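User: Predict the complex.
Assistant: Input components as received:
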Amino acid sequence: MKATKALFLPRHKLNDLFQSFIQSGFNIITPIVQNGSLRYHQIRHANEITPGAIDDSHMGKITLAKTKSPRFYSFTTTEQSIKPWVFSPKEVLWQSDHSQSTITFKSTPPNTQPTLVFGIKGCDLAGLNLLDQHFNKDPSPDPHYQQRRASLSLIGLNCHRSGANCFCNSTQDGPKIETDTCDALMSELDEGFIFHHSQTDLHARLTSLKLSPATPEQLRQAEYETQAAAAEQQKKLPKISSTDLFEQDNHPEWEKVAERCLSCGNCTAVCPSCFCHTIEAKPTLSNTSEQTRQWDSCFTTQHSYLHGIYIRPERIHRYRQWLTHKFSGWQAQYGRIGCTGCGRCITYCPVGIDPSQALQTLLRRQEDI
Amino acid sequence: MIHLPQAAIITERIQETKTIFTLKLRFEDPQIQAEYHFQPGQFNMLYLHGVGEIPISIVSDPKDSDFLQHTIRVVGRVTQGFSRLQAGDSIGVRGAFGSAWPLAENKRKDIIFFTGGLGCAPVVAAIKYVLKRRNDYDNVCIIQGVKHADDLIWRQQYQTWQEQHNVQIYLAADVSSPGWKGHVGPPTELLHQADFDPDNCCFMLCGPQPMMIAVCQQLHGKGVPDNAIWLSLERNMQCGNAQCGHCQIGPLFACKQGPVFNYSTIKQFIGKPGL
């Protein structure tokens, strides 16, 4: 059940909303500036949020600046998406015990608490939906992912600013959030937050704060800002089908990109949808062993290791694998591309490789010939 | 069974060759043993305590409900560890995972099993299935190639299959050894001897990928349609549940849509370097 009448929350009342959740046993996580970078972090009071923080992203570079804006969420993207909160970078899946003559197995579920994610943007919400499709699917959803995911309540936030690497407008995941997959959706203005819609529970909490409805001017301003943010975006993806990149496996562009790529795996680590992981036995000194899952990257040679051989021994093979999977393979697997236009892979690539540019080149031949 | 292993006891260990051995297993929990089922072509993730998990195809008959069998070749760290186990030792099993050979769908056809190396293991359960229902199928043929004549396991079994079940058996070794009566050379050179109707046959292939691709190309020349050819492929598999991402072949997960693939589905994604 969603209430659709937009309410306006003045910024000074935001902490009242947070406290209402905290009193109900929720953790609150929201993007804040911490140790010089923007990241989702648990807060206990609204004054832990840094007002006016903005990011300036380039190819292979990001700097943070403080502006005089009173807004809490003027930046474009956090360093990491929400991914680590649902798909832990490293966790124990189960434990085996061989202290007796036979082995026993015990699952090791994560410790979770109800968590309010406040201010998730369109690109990251779409990334979460992609991870849901991958990990939370029937008939055998991943129990760790499922439990972490079920603990989250999501408050989406329309973006009012785009960075140089943003192209969510091209993937249709932002700046305005159009999906119905968050528990509430808001826009931020100088004077506070518009809640466009909210689930019943949240709506009741907002109502108890004695909020007024958002004015038509406020709604128009919010709409104008998301449209302006969309218009600001310079990067754009070409139209790609589920077979296009598989058909371009011999294109000379792969060689050019591979020459620059360092195989560092930064792009896969910051990608909101990359899901690859290794599973390893970690024996302890007490006859138990922890079966441990850890993020992996298709840019490592080990990723394709098969009893003595490597299926993708060269960097060109691995870059091609990543991009082909992300933009064509994903469509065959899950019905859409695996990219949500957040631009992090460009920002955090040490050599500034831009997949949107590579794709333009890889697919140009169709129109040119 | 999918996410958490179940303990199984090794009831028998058979040394097949110097580096190949078979483990006969029974789940410790009788209820799990009773409920466990698989189809020929599928695999289990076998767990050796403190060492790791590996995907291994199941070689027993699906109708043998009181045990299951895995044949393993020592190739790396985990298989090395498994090779040291003895009857009475306990391991973990998750499964069964993956796709199966299309056996029920291909009755009244000529069935040709074409295998290389230990490649025979993934089709053994299928061979047993077909021979148990021999009258449901027309010609049955097994073409098996090995690198060295000494690598050939289950010699006795081949003879039994040939004599008692009216199966054509063609064996090939790249390197022969004293007493070797089979062909010397690649198994693809034996294909012309097999008796099958290209319009009414089903090929089941496993073994080294280049060998399988060579067979597919030969079969194309003989008029066998692509969709009558099935291949069992290997990739790095760590979860068995299409989640860890390592086993992808094109857009397909080898642990889910495979390991048994129809050639028409997988054709465009195999045989190219690094794909």
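The radius of gyration of chain B is 18 Å.
Let me know if you want any component modeled separately.
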